[in-house]
Amino acid sequence: MTARKTRTFKSGNSVALRLPKALGVPAGIEMTVREERGRYIVEPAEHKPQRIDLTGIYGSGAGLRPLTSEEREIDPSIDIPASLRRNARP
Q1: What was the pLDDT predicted at 12?
Q2: Has residue 64 been placed in a domain?
Q3: Which of 10, 19, 38, 72 has the smallest CB count inside 10 Å?
Q4: What distance lies between CA 13 and its chain's CA centroid?
Q5: Is 14 a domain residue?
Q6: Within the chain, where are the H helices?
Q7: 31 near 45, Cβ under 8 Å?
Q8: What is the pLDDT of residue 50?
Q9: What is the number of other CB atoms lying within 10 angstroms of the CB of residue 25?
């Protein structure tokens, strides 16, 4: 890779680094900066897969229970593909 010169600048209370457009880094990308042996390494941050925490809503529907097949009402005007039907009658 060809080395490119750039310059730091003041951005609020921070010092920022402008990356040349030729590098192809889109705006808004989270980056990690570290110092190794007097050099600064700037890399895209690793994103860990996020998990949805449902512990806060578990049990919040007091008195709710799954419907039995007899309790379910299905609108007959809706065309459900045979591959998605349960207990399909021939």
Answers
A1: 93
A2: no
A3: 38
A4: 29
A5: yes
A6: none
A7: yes
A8: 80
A9: 13
Q: Count structural domains, the chain.
A: 1
Residue 86 lies in a domain: no
Domain that holds residue 18: 8-44
E strands, 1-90, where?
8-11, 14-17, 31-36, 39-44
pLDDT tens sequence across 32-85: 999 999 999 989 988 877 888 777 776 667 777 778 888 878 777 788 787 777
Beta bridge partners of 16: 9
Six token digits for residue 34? 């570290």
Q: Show the tokens assigned to 3.
A: 């080395």
Tell me, yes or no, whether 63 lies in a domain.
no
Separation between Cα atoms, residue 86 and residue 82, nearest integer Å: 8
Q: Tell me how far apart the alpha carbons of residues 25 and 14 are, in angstroms, rounded to a whole number.
A: 20
